Structure formats: C-alpha cells, structure tokens
Amino acid sequence: MLAPHHPRQNHLLAALPEVDYERLLPQLEPVALPLGWALYESGSEQDYVFFPTDSIVSLLYVMQDGSSAEIAVAGNEGVVGISLFMGGETTPSRAVVQSAGYGYRLRASVLKAEFAHGGELQHLLLRYTQALITQMAQTAVCNRHHTVEQQLCRWLLLSLDRLPTNQLSMTQELIANMLGVRREGVTEAAGKLQAEGLIHYSRGKITVLDRPKLEARVCECYAVVKHEYDRLLPETTAN
User: Fold this and answer.
1) Does residue 204 come out as left (phi exceeding 0), alpha (psi in the -120 to 50 range) or beta?
2) 170: left (phi over 0), alpha (psi -120 to 50) or beta
3) Apex 84 CA angle, 83 and 90, nearest 5
4) 3-state SS, residue 7
5) pLDDT tens digits in sequence order for the chain, 239 residues long
6) Closest by Cα among 85, 82, 88, 87 to 39
7) CA 182 to CA 178: how far, in whole Å?
8) DSSP code of residue 239
9) Strand 205-208 relative to strand 167-169: parallel, antiparallel, unpaired?
10) DSSP per residue over 203-231, as a string?
11) Which stretch of DSSP H or E encloses residue 100?
12) CB-based contact 75:128 (threshold 8 Å)
C-alpha cells in the first residue's frame, strides 16, 4: 500500500520501469501545492517540472487586461512544465493550483538530461504532451460551440478524473474565471445540475452525486479528451 503522497501516485512516475524510477527517485522533491499558487507565470523561466499526486493544476492563458481562461488541466495523470523538455523553455500560459494537494518536483536540468537520455520517460512525456495538446484543442472547440452547462460538465468530469474523491473545492467565481464566462452563467448551470440531483454545491464545495447522469449531459468534448488520454497513457490513468 502506498504511503501518503508517494511519487507512484503520479501515473507517469508509476509507469516508469523500476531501474528508471530508482534513478529518478533521489531527485524528486516532495512539495505542497496550495490553492492559488502559481507554479509558473507567463513568459517566466521554469526551474522545475511538477508531478502532481492528489492536486490539480490549471493551465491558463492571461490576456493583457488581466482576464484569463483555462486551456487545460493537469493532475496525477501527468506533469506540469512541458516547455522544458519540448525545447521552448517558456510559455505564454501560466500554471495555477486549482485543487490543493501535493506533488513532486524535478529540477529542469535533471529533467532535460533524462529526456535527452531517451528511454521510457521520454516516451511517456511525449505521449502525455500529445494528450495535453488534444485537451487544449478540444477546450477551444468546446468554449466556442457548447453551452456553459456543457462546459461545466466537461470541467467537472476532467477534474474528477484527476482526484481520488468525488468532491472539489471551488467557488463559482473561480469556475467562471477558468471557463472564461460570466459568473451568472455558471450559477445558472450549477443550479440546474443541483436541482436535478447531479451535484451538490455548498460553501465552495462541489460534490458529484450522480456521475453517470453527468456523463450523459456532457458534450462530446469530454469523451474525445478522455479517449486520447486512455489511448496514449498507462492504464492507471483510466477511471
């Protein structure tokens, strides 16, 4: 049985062959990821990549006027900071902890050396990047073509896939900021889902009561993203 916040709770680390994992283990630093903490800012130098274990990180694009919208989420299925091994070094997005928890960080220099070495870690990181790109593209399509209620369902399900429980700590205002929509729209959409018994919302906590019905209400975007993650990544990422 895994100890609390064990590196193997991250599915990419869990999928590594034992010899690769043991080589990496001394370099992995446990780190608390409090709500609202920015792992990196737009255009800033990234010193670490992060492997969440029981937390969720939102990748946000911030406009000049300060408004923002979420382009993807990352949790125990992956890693935060792909620009370090993709060669870009920086990115116009920012990464903010959406659901507090823990994770492990790895220095950029260590990650780059491991990636250049090739092997299973490189393969896992590249497959994860492809899945993440799919999520970003589908998020853009969803935000353009689907209702706020469908977007909220997609967001809830993607978040649940990355958490060990069916409860999220998130205010409607923060959800609106993530989705890039008005708070009134989120309030109305969440009210409908609660009235029909799919979720319960109280004091910044959302509990999903009926996941099958939530999946029945969501647009096609969730299934597209989940299928790509399940296809490309280890079976432990599937729920």
Assistant:
1) left
2) beta
3) 55
4) helix
5) 344 678 999 999 999 999 999 999 999 999 999 988 999 888 788 889 999 999 999 998 877 777 777 889 999 999 999 988 888 777 778 899 988 899 999 999 999 999 988 889 999 999 999 999 999 988 888 878 888 888 888 888 988 888 888 888 776 777 776 676 677 877 888 888 889 898 898 877 888 989 999 999 888 888 889 998 998 887 654 33
6) 82
7) 10
8) -
9) antiparallel
10) TTEEEES-HHHHHHHS-HHHHHHHHHHHH
11) none
12) no
Q: Where does residue 172 rank: exposed (0-12), middle (13-18), buried (19+ CB within 10 A)?
A: buried
Instruction: For residue 208, give every residue at least 6 positions away whose Cβ sits within 8 Å of its Cβ, in sequence order, or none.
Output: 156, 160, 166, 167, 198, 199, 214
- Does an H or E element contain 118, and which? none
8 Å CB contact between 197 and 190: no
Pick from 169, 147, 145, 146: nearest CA to 156: 169
pTM of the model: 0.87
Give the integer Cα–Cα distance in Å for 46 and 49. Answer: 8
Please give the structure tokens belonging to residue 24.
């990496």
In this structure, what are the phi and psi dihedrals at residue 159, rounded to the nearest 5 degrees? -70, -45
Q: Residue 238 carries which DSSP code?
A: -
Number of residues written out for the chain: 239
